[in-house]
Each structure stands twice: as C-alpha cells, then as structure tokens.
C-alpha cells in the first residue's frame, strides 16, 4: 500500500516530462530504487506513517524541495537521513531529466534545421527546374535561329546565283557594246570605183593579163591600188564587188575577178556581125580575210576598150566586218 503511494508521488514528480521521455524516465526511477531499498523505504514510510503530523511535514517538505531543485543536497541539514537519501536520488533524477529535456530540445532544434535544409533543398530544386526551363528555351531559340540562318544562307546562295547570271549577261552585253563601238568608231570604211583609162583599146594577148583600172573615182580607205589594179583587203569582212567591160565590134571580151589565185566571177561577150559593141558585167559579195588580194584579169585573146568614157569599171566596198 505504501509502495503504491510512493509510485504515485514519483509520477507526480515526473509530471513535467514530455510524454515520450516520461516512460523511459519512470523506468529509470524504478531501476534506481532497488527492491530491497524500496522495502526499506516502505518500512520507513510505515514508521513515519504512525506519526501523522510528522508525515504531513515530510510531504510538504518533498513538494517544497521539488520547487527548490536542484539545490536539494545542500538542505540535508533539515531532513532525516533516509529521506535525504531519497531526495538526493530525486535530485539526480531531475538533473538527468533536465539533460534529457535538453537533448529533446536539441533534437527538436535539429529537426528544425533538417526541415530548414529540406526547404532550402526544395527551393534549390525549384531554382534548378527554372534554370532547366530557361536552358531548354534558350536551346529552342538557338535551334530556331539556326534554322532561320540556314534559310538566309540558302536565300543568299540563290541571290549569288542570280548575281552571277546577271554579271554574266552584263559582261556579254559589254563585249557586244565594245564590238559595236569599235566597229562604229574605228568604223573601217572601204569603198572604191575605178575605170580603165587610156587612149584606146588594150589589144589581145597570148596570155591572161591583170587589168589596172587607173581612173579612180573613189578610193575610201585606200585599199585599192590603181597602179597594179589590186584591192588589198584591209579587214576581215563581207565585201561587194562589181565590174563591167566594153569592147568594140570586131572583138570578143572576157574578164574575170580573182581572189588571190582563184577565179571567182567572169563576164564575156562574143562579137557578131550585127552589133558594133560588146558589153558584159558581173558582181557579187565575197567573204574576205584580211590581206586577201582581189583583182581583174583580161582573158587571153580578149580585147577591152580603155579610154576616158568609163565603160569598163571595177568597184568594191565593205558591207560589214566579221
Ligand atoms: C550534508 O551532509 C554532507 C554529508 O552527507 C555534509 O558534508 C554536509 O556538510 C551537509 N550539509 C549541511 C548543510 O549540513
Ligand atoms: C559566282 O561566281 C564566282 C566567280 O565569278 C564563283 O566563285 C562563285 O562560286 C559563283 N557563285 C555561284 C553561286 O555560282
Ligand atoms: C570619166 O571620168 C572622168 C573623171 O575621171 C570624167 O572627167 C569624164 O567625164 C568621165 N567620162 C564619161 C564619159 O563619163
């Protein structure tokens, strides 16, 4: 009966413990109070119980000491030796309780720190997610910029092709323009007309002979030589030549136009009893190289009239250069 009361008293003393720590501490207390020691205390208590007024004092003393803790050991002068022993145990227990409380507080501080660290970690994770989003946005932007860049590059290539084509056309037109300018500026102008001059006819010969048309009417460009009757082609191009010949009644007339050593054009008229003059003529365009010689010949056994009536003539001019 006395033991139960003590246990209740001890439970009251440990009322300040937290719920978790309370049970452990109570066990500690029960261990501290060994069975035989407990029996002593119980006996002691019974003895004291017989003096009820004294009992009242002790109970008050215990409650007072609890309020005065942890200065219990210094008050041993005013308590019974057994009670003092109990009180010292109580003081030690209280000290351990305080330590445990401190540890609990430390633990709860640690928990707070852990919670803080957790919040910090969450915050950093959130920041990381934001940065990841930003990064992927930047990457997408970069990709789209690269695509745009590729498109621009292709456009530039197309433009480059067009510029090249335009440049080519401009170059061609420049060449054509230069040629036209050259033709119109140094505009080689070649034209001549000359007639056989002399005091009568040129008699027939045993062989074909050159004719020198010495009566010059025009000789623009000085390509025709009236002394030899040879036209010396000054520039490559297309030329037009014409000639005519005249002979009187008893004679045949045959003339030819030569390019270098090649006969090109001819004209003949054979005499008859019925007319008193024989005329013939021919003409055409020739494509000549620079330096080509063009001249007229009188065939062998042919006759031609040469005076100042200008009936036998040789003409030529440049149509265009090639
Ligand atoms: C209490 O008791 C201890 C020995 O148990 C002694 O050294 C001390 O002086 C005592 N204190 C008082 C206040 O009597
Ligand atoms: C344009 O012409 C230049 C040389 O004139 C050449 O280097 C370039 O490759 C050409 N560009 C294209 C797109 O043909
Ligand atoms: C022949 O040409 C000369 C000039 O060289 C001219 O004086 C003459 O009148 C011309 N004769 C005829 C018949 O046309």
Can you tag this structure with a few keywords?
five-stranded antiparallel β-sheet, secreted, Jelly Rolls, 25% strand, 2 domains, binds 2-acetamido-2-deoxy-beta-D-glucopyranose, 322 residues, coiled coil, C1q_dom, alpha+beta, 13 strands
Would you spell out the secondary-structure blueprint of this structure?
Elements: H1 2-13, H2 19-32, H3 35-50, H4 52-68, H5 81-185, E1 191-195, E2 200-202, E3 209-211, E4 215-220, E5 224-225, E6 230-232, E7 237-248, E8 253-259, E9 262-269, E10 277-288, E11 293-298, E12 304-306, E13 313-321
Antiparallel strand pairs: 1-4, 1-13, 2-12, 3-11, 5-6, 6-11, 7-10, 7-13, 8-9, 8-11
Helix pairs in contact: 2-5
The structure holds 2-acetamido-2-deoxy-beta-D-glucopyranose (3 copies).
């Amino acid at each position: 009966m006395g033991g139960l009361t003590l246990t209740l008293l001890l439970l009251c003393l440990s009322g300040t413990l937290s719920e978790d720590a309370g049970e452990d501490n109570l066990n500690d207390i029960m261990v501290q109070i060994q069975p035989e020691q407990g029996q002593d205390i119980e006996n002691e208590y019974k003895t004291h119980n017989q003096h009820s007024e004294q009992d009242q004092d002790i109970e008050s003393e215990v409650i007072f000491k609890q309020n005065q803790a942890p200065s219990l050991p210094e008050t041993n002068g005013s308590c019974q030796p057994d009670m003092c022993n109990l009180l010292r145990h109580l003081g030690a227990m209280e000290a351990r309780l305080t330590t445990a409380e401190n540890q609990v507080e430390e633990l709860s501080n640690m928990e707070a720190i852990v919670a803080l660290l957790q919040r910090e970690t969450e915050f950093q994770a959130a920041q990381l997610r934001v940065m990841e989003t930003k990064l992927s946005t930047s990457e997408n932007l970069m990709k789209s910029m690269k695509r745009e860049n590729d498109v621009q590059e292709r456009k530039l290539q197309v433009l480059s092709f067009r510029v090249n084509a335009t440049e080519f056309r401009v170059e061609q037109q420049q060449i054509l323009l230069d040629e036209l300018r050259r033709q119109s500026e140094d505009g080689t102008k070649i034209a001549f007309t000359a007639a056989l001059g002399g005091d009568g006819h040129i008699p027939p010969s045993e062989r074909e002979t050159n004719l020198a048309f010495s009566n010059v009417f025009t000789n623009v460009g000085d390509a025709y030589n009236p002394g030899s009757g040879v036209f010396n082609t000054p520039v490559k191009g297309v030329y037009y030549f014409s000639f005519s010949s005249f002979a009187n009644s008893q004679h045949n007339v045959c003339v030819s136009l030569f390019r270098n050593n090649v006969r090109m054009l001819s004209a003949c008229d054979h005499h008859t009893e019925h007319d008193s003059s024989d005329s013939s003529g021919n003409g055409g365009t020739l494509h000549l190289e620079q330096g080509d010689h063009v001249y007229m010949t009188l065939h062998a056994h042919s006759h031609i009239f040469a005076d100042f009536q200008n009936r036998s003539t040789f003409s030529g001019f440049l149509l265009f250069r090639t």
